[in-house]
Amino acid sequence: MINNVHQYYTYILTNVTHKVLYVGVTNNLQTRIWEHKQKLFAGFTAKYNCDKLVYFEEYNWIQDAIDREKQLKAGSRQKKIDLINAENPDWNNLSANWYD
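and the corresponding C-alpha cells:
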C-alpha cells in the first residue's frame, strides 16, 4: 500500500514593522515564502513588503487548510495577533534560516 502524505499549510506573514498581516494557504511552504520574499507576484504581499513568516499550521487535506485560511481571514486583526503571540511571542521570522 502506498502512503500518500499530503501536506498543506495555512500561514501568516507580516512586514518588518508588524503593521500588516497576510493570511495564505499553500502546499509547499518553503517555496511559497521564497516567492513572497522575491516578490515574484504583484499583489498585496509585494505591495506591503510582507515576507516575514510568523505563524503557520500544517494540514493533511487541502480543504482543511482552505477552511482555516477563510476562518483566519474572517477574524479580527486582534485574533490573528493573539494567535501569533500564543505560538511565537517574539514574532521571530520562522523562515529565517531556510535560504542560507
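(Above: one complete record from the training split.) The chain has one domain: 8-87.
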